């Protein structure tokens, strides 16, 4: 339990910081952040605060899907956007193209690590992840199909509102899956160590 709590409390703010790096890079961000950027442009709120509000709204969509939030779900809504906003307020502007590319790459890597930490802590999925699994359980959609439908819709809406879509968006989509996979293999607290498996067997 102590390890799980530490992973959760480190992973969530790191996730926000990683997203902030991709935002500051200005080369394109993940679909949900594209939507948050678009809404921020029209509301005058910071991207991080909009991210928190979006998380709360998505959580409401769990009700008809009969998904149950965990402690990690609630903390995700409160912490990720806040860390994102605070990091954006502190980050220096990236002037050169190389600095922006490095910022994007570092952001994707940090989001992958952070995802491994907080998902591996097993305190409940993030609000957006729960939406995908809820659609899978209630409507029978494959998870990949539910994710694709939701994220493409969110991406299109965010782009229409003025969010940043670019090759960084494609890079994020291509790299984040493998990054999370590798980090989860190391950080998933539900995985049994080979030695422990041999002892039980």
From TrEMBL:
The keyword Transport does not apply. The chain crosses the membrane at residues 40-62, 74-91, 97-120. Keywords: Membrane, Transmembrane, Transmembrane helix. Pfam families: DUF6198. InterPro entries: YczE/YyaS-like. The keyword Oxidoreductase does not apply. It comes from the Bacteria. This is Membrane protein. It comes from Microbacterium album.
């Amino acid at each position: 339990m102590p390890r799980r709590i530490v992973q959760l409390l480190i992973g969530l703010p790191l996730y926000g910081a990683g997203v902030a790096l991709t935002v500051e890079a200005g080369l394109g961000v993940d679909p949900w952040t594209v939507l948050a950027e678009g809404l921020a442009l029209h509301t005058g709120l910071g991207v991080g605060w909009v991210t928190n509000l979006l998380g709360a709204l998505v959580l409401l969509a769990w009700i008809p899907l009969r998904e149950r939030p965990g402690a990690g779900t609630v903390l995700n809504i409160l912490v990720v956007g806040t860390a994102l906003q605070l990091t954006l307020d502190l980050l220096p502007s990236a002037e050169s193209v190389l600095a922006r590319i490095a910022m994007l790459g570092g952001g994707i890597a940090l989001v992958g690590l952070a995802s491994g930490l907080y998902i591996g802590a097993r305190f409940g999925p993030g609000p957006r992840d729960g939406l995908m699994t809820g659609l899978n359980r209630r409507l029978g959609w494959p998870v990949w199909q539910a994710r694709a439908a939701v994220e493409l819709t969110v991406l299109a809406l965010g782009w229409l509102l003025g969010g940043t879509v670019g090759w960084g968006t494609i890079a994020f989509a291509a790299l984040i899956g493998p990054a999370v996979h590798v980090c989860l293999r190391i950080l998933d607290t539900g995985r049994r160590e080979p030695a422990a498996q041999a002892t039980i067997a």
